[in-house]
Design goal:
The complex is a heterodimer.
Chain A (H helix, E strand, L loop, with lengths): L6 H11 L4 H14 L1 H21 L7 E2 L2 E2 H32 L2 H6 L5 H30 L6 H28 L3 H18 L14 H5 L2 H14 L5 H26 L2
Antiparallel strand pairs in A: 1-2
Helix pairs in contact in A: 2-6, 3-4, 3-6, 4-6, 4-7, 4-8, 4-10, 6-7, 6-11, 7-10, 7-11, 10-11
Chain B lengths: L24 E12 L7 E12 L3 E5 L6 H8 L7 E6 L2 E2 L4 H6 L1 E4 L11 H11 L4 H14 L15 H13 L5 E5 L7 H16 L3 E5 L3 H7 L2 E6 L2 E6 L1 H8 L4 E6 L4 H12 L6 E6 L2 E5 L3 H8 L7 E6 L4 H9 L13 H12 L17
Parallel strand pairs in B: 3-8, 3-9, 6-7, 7-8
Antiparallel strand pairs in B: 1-2, 1-4, 4-5, 9-10, 11-13, 11-14, 12-13
Classes of the chains: A mainly alpha, B alpha/beta.
């Protein structure tokens, strides 16, 4: 039987064709970030380096070893992961907001022979690439400051582990940027939803620090899985498949909702 | 069987259940409707059964006062907004079902400047070309030529924000033309341009027309519409109130046997009294003093009019002749109609006869003001 004549494939291939335009839009996001690279670079590394100096160096005298690692090393995966997902959310939200509400570029895309699914997927792919590139930069800067040796294999596992959370946060940001007409609402969504998720997820401390009765709740936060898994993959070379699978499901869910939201809002 | 649509039979499409005939027309719209339902407010019809057709290779202008539905119509025809009712074929393709294929051949210049302000001119053009599926080999020479034509080539690597408003408008036109569209929508293309730049855009539009590109134009400059358009569609309150060539529209609004006398001396009242004495027995002859130097007459046959003109001393007379309506008079007359809905079923040419009837029952006043309802005069 001809593989291409399989009903599932033949139903999917035309839909893949509808993703024409995804890459130009993704590359656009990379280009617009790189056009202002000196300031972008500074803004990207300022926050994690500040956290590193404030917590890593400031608290070293009180917290010598955490889960078998010096506290300054314990912080490293969380700070990099935090940078990636925060950038994913911010780039997703602001890129979509600028295009839809400020620059009118969404209308410009929609008079091109591309589908709305390709537009939103391009924005998300571009946002994820930007976030990952910024994560690599922050990792390189922090590695210069942290006296530790990490294997290449562990770094690759770490990068792979970050992917689903990056997609999920970028998709959430894209939804916010599409739906919120006022920029204040994006800033508020960051303060009300994203920041608590990140800080409750054990960015600066291990889950074992939480009281027993709270631990089961915070363990199910996607950000807890992100930070715990990041440390396991980068510092111990162990890939937490279960957490990774759950994060992949989160990413898929967020992606589907973002695409659906975008298509629905633009069809009005 | 398809129903043929022609300028002589513009309503043919409205009543056909078969596919719209697009062989002679680049665009055929049939009873397009758009209803908006703002949250917490009653629904309103932005377009109320708009039908028209655009012949290939012409410049087709859409005119109407603010809120007439021009932008909504453009957004529907460029596939951005979905119509609530009716149908259309653009470039022979179904607007609803083949929107992606239509967009491949559309060029659009929006009313507002839509750019990625974080990219340079060249990067914006590259993005546009890539989304149209053009390879660098295809778009680079054309992009360079177009940028050179409008004098923006030396600034191609600058961010768009560094360009003046006029330059940004020129760049928008370059981008709309980059993929050689078959149908070009220009939504107020010369707004914000200085007179010289405006003339350059007009020249570009003329050149495109000669190259058989069909252009759908909206503008607030009636001089522009008059100069460039082959056909004009007038909208009001979401309905078509008139359609035709500029000449047809002006003729429709011009009153028969209307004349104007311009004087060198401020003796309009004197001459009006003189004419009144001569025309007193003929009650259907009317005249009006517009100011000290201008006199309008309505009703006399040409022979009678020139007899009256012969009474004016040659040193007092600057000009005498037919009082022809210009496009502004047409626009004001259409915009002033109180009940646009009454034109609903009489779209296009039928609407013109209604306008003529309305015009003929109003006495006195200038050609422009005569067609306004009492309350708006």
């Amino acid at each position: 039987m001809n593989l291409l004549s399989h009903p599932t494939l033949s139903a999917t291939l035309p839909k893949l064709h509808r993703l024409h335009g995804l890459w130009p839009i993704a590359l656009k996001t990379l280009r617009q970030e790189s056009n202002g690279w000196p300031l972008e670079l500074l803004a990207t590394i300022a926050s994690p380096v500040t956290f590193f100096l404030a917590f890593g160096l400031g608290l070293t005298g009180y917290m010598h070893q955490v889960e078998g690692h010096p506290y300054i090393v314990f912080l490293l995966p969380g700070l990099v992961a935090n940078t990636v997902v925060m950038q994913a959310y911010n780039v997703g939200a602001w890129s979509l907001w600028l295009d839809r509400w400020h620059q009118g570029m969404t209308d410009e895309y929609r008079i091109k022979p591309v589908s709305t699914t390709a537009i939103i997927m391009g924005q998300i792919v571009g946002g994820c690439l930007v976030a990952l590139v910024k994560g690599v930069i922050v990792a390189l800067v922090l590695l210069c400051l942290v006296p530790t040796h990490l294997s290449v294999e562990a770094m690759v596992l770490f990068a792979v582990y970050l992917l689903p959370a990056t997609v999920a946060l970028n998709a959430l940001g894209a939804m916010a940027g599409t739906a919120f007409r006022k920029p204040d609402h994006i800033a508020q969504s960051l303060t009300i939803v994203i920041t608590p998720l990140l800080y409750l997820g054990g960015l600066f401390f291990p889950m074992s620090s939480y009281p027993e009765h709270i631990r089961p709740w915070v363990n199910w936060l996607p950000t807890t899985m992100l930070f715990e898994g990041s440390r396991q993959s980068l510092l111990e070379g162990h890939f937490p498949w279960l957490s990774f699978s759950i994060l992949c499901l989160w990413a898929l869910l967020c992606l589907l909702v973002a695409v659906r939201t975008y298509n629905r809002l633009l069809s009005e | 069987m398809n129903t043929a649509i022609s300028p002589e039979n513009p309503d043919a499409a409205s009543h056909s259940d078969s596919d719209l005939d697009c062989t002679a027309f680049v665009l055929v719209a049939d009873q397009l409707q758009k209803q908006f339902q703002p949250s917490g407010q009653p629904a309103f019809m932005a377009l109320n059964g708009v039908s028209f057709s655009v012949p290939k290779g012409c410049v087709f202008c859409i005119l109407g006062p603010n809120g007439a539905g021009k932008t909504t119509l453009i957004r529907i025809l460029t596939t951005i907004t979905r119509a609530s009712g009716g149908r259309a074929r653009v470039l022979g393709l179904d607007l609803e079902k083949q929107s992606v294929a239509i967009r491949q051949q559309l060029g659009v210049l929006f009313q507002e400047n839509h750019y990625n302000r974080y990219l340079s001119l060249w990067q914006n053009l590259e993005l546009h070309a890539q989304l149209h599926g053009l390879s660098p080999k295809q778009y680079k020479p054309r992009a360079e030529a177009l940028l050179q034509a409008v004098g923006l080539y030396p600034r191609r690597h600058d961010p768009i924000d560094q360009l003046s408003g006029g330059m940004q408008r020129k760049f928008a036109l370059v981008r709309a033309l980059l993929h050689s569209p078959s149908l070009l929508f220009l939504d107020e293309p010369t707004t914000g341009l200085d007179p010289q730049a405006r003339r350059e855009v007009w020249q570009t539009i003329e050149t495109l027309r000669q190259q058989n590109t069909t252009i759908i134009l909206t503008t607030h400059y009636l001089e522009e519409a008059d100069r460039l358009s082959d056909r004009i569609l007038m909208l009001k309150n979401g309905s078509v109130v008139a359609e035709g060539t500029p000449t047809q529209l002006k003729q429709a609004i011009s009153k028969q046997n209307s004349y104007r006398i311009l004087l060198r001396t401020p003796l309009a009242t004197h001459y009006s009294q003189l004419f009144a004495e001569r025309l007193a027995p003929q009650s259907d002859h009317r005249f009006q003093v517009m100011d000290d130097y201008t006199l309008h007459l309505h009703g006399p046959a040409p022979g009678t009019f020139w007899d009256l003109v012969s009474q004016v001393a040659s040193q007092d007379l600057r000009h005498a002749g037919l009082d022809e309506a210009d496009l502004e008079a047409v626009f004001m007359a259409m915009a002033g109609q109180q009940d646009a809905a009454s034109f609903d079923k009489a779209a296009t040419f039928n609407a013109l006869s209604s306008v003529v009837k309305n015009a003929s029952v109003v006495d006195n006043g200038s050609a422009r003001n005569n067609h306004l309802p009492e309350a708006e005069r």
